[in-house]
Amino acid sequence: MSEASELDEIAREIRSCTKCRLHMNRTNAVPGEGNPKAEVMFIGEAPGENEDLQGRPFVGAAGKVLTEAIENFLGLKRSDVFITNVVKCRPPNNRDPQDDEILACSSYLDRQIQTIKPKVIVTLGRHSTRYIMEKIGKQFRSILAERGKPIKADLGYGEVVILPTLHPAAGLYNPNLRKYFEEDFRTLAGLLGRDKDKDKRPSIFDFLNGPRARGKEGNSNVLK
Ligand code: URA
Ligand code: SF4
Questions:
Q1: 19 CB under 6 A from ligand 2?
Q2: Which of 14, 121, 134, 165 is the most exposed place for a label (fewest CB within 10 A)?
Q3: Residue of 9, 10, 18 best suited for mutating to test ligand 2, as the one with most atoms within 8 Å of CB
Q4: What top-level class would CATH report for the domain 3-223?
Q5: If DSSP states are collapsed to H, E and C, what string results for 103-128?
Q6: Is 211 exposed, middle or buried (0-12, 13-18, 19+ CB in 10 A)?
Q7: Is the pTM higher than 0.90?
Q8: 79: Cα within 13 Å, side-chain hemisphere
Q9: What is the C-alpha separation between 85 and 105, in angstroms, rounded?
């Protein structure tokens, strides 16, 4: 089966999945999206409200930060990479996913990884970082301790580099953390061999103040 049809099959199973309690409140499951042969895969935590409504990952405020980082900082398109989450259905009121939910959902993520065979996996925040680190037999301490340090690993299909970073929402709501997120994307650019334009790169969070932030709903909208 091609990578694309394998991913379609996984997505189909996710949309009808009832393996954990999160299926009860979902509007749409959010399997993930992107290039079936992506070199880089981003793994977030769980769908939020906008993602649940649209059935697509990272389309709300945190998604604006991630999209900015991918498109204007790295110079890639969202469709070049693959974006997904540890759990595929929205937890009520955006609470943290629970261990049994992560466990129940993990076979979908594992199969997506084995299908795409990314060279780099960027884990966004503590849930996906902890999941992947434990999978490769490393102890997770805290996201601030692990972020920014690439880990070479073997997930069964060849070498992959795991790069833990903060969740994009962390930078959105805490300006003191933005420098770390940006530093880690600089590291990612280096891992992908995309560091030639490093001096021309905009700051990832500049868009919050720039003209692109001022849509018809006004500037404050990006922070909601
Ligand atoms: N936060 C996440 O972790 N994932 C999404 O898809 C959206 C927000
Ligand atoms: Fe199934 Fe995962 Fe959704 Fe739980 S979160 S119902 S395991 S797809």
A1: yes
A2: 134
A3: 18
A4: alpha beta
A5: HHHHHHHHHHHHHHCCCEEEEECHHH
A6: exposed
A7: yes
A8: 1
A9: 10
The sign of the torsion formed by the CA atoms of 135, 45, 59, 48 equals positive
* Residue extents of the structural domains in the chain: 3-223
Model confidence pLDDT, tens digit, residues 136-175: 999 999 999 999 999 999 999 999 999 999 999 999 999 9
The ligand 1 site (C-beta within 6 Å) comprises 44-48, 51, 57-58, 60, 62-63, 85
**Nearest Cα to Cα of residue 84 among 61, 58, 107, 65:** 58
- Which residues sit opposite 34 in a β-bridge? 82
- To the nearest 10 degrees (0 to 180), the angle between helices 3-15 and 99-116 is 160
The candidate with the shortest Cα–Cα distance to 48, out of 19, 69, 28, is 28
The whole-angstrom separation of Cα 10 and Cα 108 is 7
Distance from C-alpha of 99 to C-alpha of 133, rounded to nearest angstrom: 15
Per-run averaged pLDDT (10 residues), the chain, 224 residues: 96 98 98 98 98 98 97 96 98 97 98 98 98 97 98 96 98 95 97 82 85 45 35
14 Cβ inside 6 Å of ligand 2: yes
Strand-strand pairing, 33-34 and 151-154: unpaired
